[in-house]
Amino acid sequence: MAGMDLTTLESAVAANPDDSTAWANLAAAYHSEGRFEPALEAFREAASRQPGDVGLWLGMGRAALELQRGDMVDMAVAQAFDVDPSHPELYRLVCDSATSPDHVADRLVGAARYLQLAPDSEDHATYVQLILDTLATVAEFEPWRAGDVLESMPYLEPVIPAEQLAPLAEQLVAARDRAVAAPDATPDLSGRLAAAEALLTTDPAEALEAFQTLASEIAAQGDDHQPPLAHAAATAYNGLALAILAGAPAAGPERAAHLALALEAAGEALARDPQIDQPYRADLETELAAVRDDLVAGSADDADSEVAADEPAGDVEETSGDPAPAELALDSAPEPAAAPEAADEAAMAPADAPRVVLAESEWLALLDEAWAEAERGNADEARVAFTTVLDRVGERRIQARALAGLGRVELALGAGDAAMQRTEEALALDTGCGQAHLVRGLLAEGKHDWLRALQAYQFAEAVLPGDGRVQRGLGIALCERGDYDDAVAPLTRAHESLPEDPAIVVALGRCFVATAQYPMAIACLEAALGMNPDAAMADTAERSLELAREAEARPVKAPPRPSKPEEEEYDPDTAPPEATRPDDDDRPVRDRVLKRADDAPDFDPDRHVRCHICRYPNPKGAERCERCSHSMAPPVPPTPRAPARPCFVATAACGDAFAPEVVTLRAWRDTVLCRSAGGRWLIRCYDRCSPPLARFIAQRRWLAALVRRRLITPLAERLSRLGAER
Question: Pseudo-torsion of CA 60, 62, 67, 68, nearest 10°?
């Protein structure tokens, strides 16, 4: 029966694909059967057709949570918050998705807000116990998080009985004091790295163990090839190389093995931070080459003695009188020459020098080469390379990149559904896989769904900021959506990386046409037509080129400058919004107003009240202004509503989009900053650059508290004072 119902719902969607209700019913049916992948897509389709339904966004978030798609959960939460910030299921979703130890404060606040908004829920006791267990765990086992948890107490006090909350609060205060008194017990990477570096001169073996532990912990926190973990990981691997050098033997194959491992660690450090200082690297490479040459030079004699020791005595007598020919000696020489490489496996086996496996850079290089083959159309070669990586590497991040590469191969072959499936598998392994987001952007671009393409490329840009393919997609998506000013910068960066791509040059030309930069537009479009684009692109370029030439040939008439008699000087109280104040006019507003109205009485606060429009003194009790006829009733403040555009960094720092500081900053942006062209440009730049920064701040509660105290609160207070003075 369930299958028949599902078939009926699928038929209803196929018959009317624009019906959001049909999509919602289909999504709910998929979700109830545990088919979360199609449920996520169905919820997404329904929400795109009815974005004002908070239930659809929450269903999408629940399905994404089941699939461990953190990026989709965050997007669904943000959209649901814009629609209904007081929906209890929204905060329940926030609580359930905050599974990382770094998000313990978000888990507590989400659970508390859910209990406050839904006091009669059936699972009330479950979430109360969740809060109590979390507080107890932090107080006993994670004292370095106690400070962040204590900041969540104002949210917990209304929903947790005082007799249960008070003892835990005391334990958290004691745990916070212990963490402050013993900083080595906290996950302070910079402090622990400095302590490990201090051990290099006193105890290299302990320093080696400390750097290995730090490298493992940093890798477990996320992608240590991307900021902010990249520099810390590079420092750990740099220290690991120095520790291996400090504990290396004086000579022999074991020293060659240690030097090789130190060079691998130095390479790992350089891969994570190309700017890291490595003054020892040149000497290390020189010494390693010299040691290996010495080992190769003495390997022939060692080989003869080792063979004689292993063979029976009779064999020795037979071969002793017949020396090996020169060819055999040369052929046998490489076997001992490989001894340093074999020693790499055994030299680090003892407890004082454990083996370090550092082969990740080679796999990543292979993935990059395979991706380039896929883009050049060599699908078979690329598929073999990606499949090999999947079979031989078990690290989730590398497997995610390989799956994304297979998605790129399927996309090159025209199999969009298979490419989407591979991409979703990659994101299930690593939500921060930039290559997977790039493939999603290409898929959306192929469907001309420019909003989804833009979102995918923005996610990819956060992980791959310098990738020319990402910049290309971002610029083209912005151009197609009409954001021509914003599209020029990424298209320019993309053209530097991909100078032979006509699509980039055509998009640049269109942007220059739209922004009235006709000479540059003509140059770009003519160059694009010389790159042999396809028929559709050539047609677009020709039409844009024709428009640019016509606009450039059109004479530009300067608008007549209106005469400004002395009696019609600028008055900011009565001038239209588009008028500007002369630079040399600095007389007080009151003097100019009184000059216009010679019969204006002197303002007496006991008898007069000023008009809030023109500031004319009117008798108290007047219904309309005697000068401008506006109503004397005070203006009604606007009704609070959910923000149309969030303030990302302030919300991340304060933890609440309706915190007083966030409301003040958002009001200043929407009422003052947006009035000027420069202000609107700043807003666009902020909307583009702030989401990754906000995610980084939100994941570190100590940083959020610091930003709130040092930046958000002082800035909001300053803007409030300016508003009062106005």
Answer: 110
CA 135 to chain CA centroid, Å, is 29
Pairwise CA distance, residues 274 & 260, whole Å: 20
User: Helix H segments across 251-359?
Assistant: 253-272, 281-297, 299-310, 313-320, 326-332, 334-337, 339-347
- Show the tokens assigned to 296: 């190769």
| pLDDT value of residue 225 | 72
Going from the C-alpha of 512 to that of each of 33, 411, 464, the distances in angstroms are 52, 31, 26
Which two tokens mark 606?
A: 């006991």
Task: Round to whole Å and give the CA distance between 75 and 83.
Answer: 13
What is the distance of C-alpha 69 from the center of its chain?
A: 14
What does the chain come to in residues? 726
Residues 6+ apart with CB under 8 A from 272: 224, 225, 230, 231, 233, 234, 237
Determine how many CB atoms are found less than 10 A away from the CB of residue 414. Answer: 9
CA distance 495 to 503: 10
* 145 within 8 A of 101, measured Cβ to Cβ: yes
Are 356 and 261 a contacting pair, CB within 8 Å? yes
Contacts (Cβ under 8 Å, ≥6 apart) of 79: 47, 51, 57
**Buried/exposed 591-604: b ≥16 CB within 10 Å, e otherwise:** ebbbeeeeeeeeee
Report the SS3 class of residue 451: helix
| Alpha carbons within 13 A on the beta-carbon side of 418 | 11
Distance, in Å, from the CA atom of 194 to the CA atom of 216, rounded to the nearest integer, reads 17
What is the separation, in whole angstroms, between the first and last Cα of the chain?
68
CA dihedral 644, 648, 651, 652 (to 10 degrees): 150
User: For residue 506, what are the β-bridge partners?
Assistant: none
Long-range contacts at 43-52 (CB < 8 A, ≥ 24 apart): 46/20, 46/21, 47/79, 49/18, 49/19, 49/20, 49/23, 50/20, 50/24, 51/79, 51/83, 52/83
Burial 690-715 (b: 16+ CB within 10 A, else e): bbbebebbbbbbeebbebbeeebbee
* The two structure tokens encoding residue 274: 């190309």
* Cis amide linkage into residue 228, ω under 30° from 0: yes
The series of mean pLDDT values per 10 residues for the chain, 726 residues long, is 63 83 87 86 88 90 85 86 87 85 82 89 89 85 78 86 87 81 55 77 79 77 68 86 85 78 84 82 84 67 48 41 33 35 38 41 77 80 81 78 87 83 82 84 84 82 83 89 85 87 90 86 87 84 85 63 47 48 43 47 78 75 77 57 61 76 82 80 81 79 80 83 60
